[in-house]
Amino acid sequence: MLMYAKWVGIDFGQTLLDSSPERTYWMIGDTSKELGEPELVEERCHRWRRMKEKYGSYPVIKERARPETMTYVFDDRPGVAEIFSRVEQKYLKVADGAIDAVKYLRDQGIEVSIVAELKRTLGPIGTDMVSAFLIRQGVVQYFDELITPQGKINLRTGDPDLRYKGSSKEEGDLYDVLAEDLRSRGIEPQHGIMVGDKEWSDITPAQKRGFQAIHYSGYIFHAPSNASCEIRHLSELKNIIRPVE
């Protein structure tokens, strides 16, 4: 099937972000070594496995339980959050096929934004985990905006928009603000497509506000959804999405 759009939003964790699990153990090892505690690597990896059983995956932990990672896995050691964030950037990568698909969408004149469940306060570009990741990967120029419950930031100008602050993807009010935002630029919600893996935060809340939705199941299948279609590789977006004429 074909879907037509002027705007596409892509979820960050478990969609744009490669969620291969082995990288997390490398991060734990390197962080422990920088803390001067290499003897605790095995125990901390065991604690991480317990957290993964509780939350399901690394991106979910990253979005919802990062402070718990610092306290439970790393014993809340001084400076561990900064060390882990730096080590993390070394190992994370963009999902296969993602940038090729984003380039295609932009060539079609379609805006592409990242919609992330960021918990920390949004500051200048490069100070949050998502934009720092995009810069390190050399791909920040392919995205127009970073939209989060902490606010929106224009990834080209650095201009912030705090209308989104305090909203939530899961509750759906983030998509209320997004719909109003896009309408102010001449884009109706039905010409917007949300791409993500989680039915409860990426798919259903967006659809209830008039957006189209594509369910991405490349890393994990959380639950069935009413998305218009399902893809397992982000390169499939090139075969599905066309610009509104």
Question: What can you tell me about this protein's structure?
Answer:
The chain has 2 domains: 3-18 and 93-243, Rossmann fold (3-Layer(aba) Sandwich); 22-91. The protein is globular. The chain is of the alpha/beta class. The protein is built from 11 helices and 10 strands. Helix 8 (129-137) links the parallel strand 3 and strand 4. The chain has an 8-stranded mixed β-sheet. Helix 2 packs across helix 3 (41-55) and helix 2 packs across helix 6 (80-91).
Provide keyphrases for this structure.
245 residues, alpha/beta, Rossmann fold, 2 domains, eight-stranded mixed β-sheet, two-stranded parallel sheet, 10 strands, 42% helix, globular
Largest sheet: 8 strands, mixed
Task: Look at the structure and give the CATH class of the largest domain.
Answer: Alpha Beta
Tell me the distance between the termini: 17 Å
Q: Helix count, per DSSP?
A: 11
Mean pLDDT: 91
Low-confidence stretches: none
CATH fold descriptor of the largest domain: Rossmann fold
What's the SSE pattern?
EEHHHHHHHEHEEEHEHEEHE
Strands ordered across the widest β-sheet: 6-5-4-3-2-7-8-9
Q: CATH homologous superfamily of the largest domain - what is it?
A: HAD superfamily/HAD-like
Which value, in Å, is the CA radius of gyration? Answer: 18 Å
The helicity comes to 40-55%
Summary of the model, kept short:
The chain has 245 residues and is an alpha/beta fold. 42% of the residues lie in helices and 16% in strands.
Question: What are the SSEs and their pairings?
Answer:
Elements: E1 3-5, E2 7-11, H1 12-16, H2 22-34, H3 41-55, H4 58-64, H5 66-73, H6 80-91, H7 98-107, E3 111-115, H8 129-137, E4 145-148, E5 151-154, E6 160-161, H9 173-183, E7 192-196, H10 199-208, E8 212-216, E9 229-231, H11 237-240, E10 241-243
Parallel strand pairs: 1-10, 2-3, 2-7, 3-4, 7-8, 8-9
Antiparallel strand pairs: 4-5, 5-6
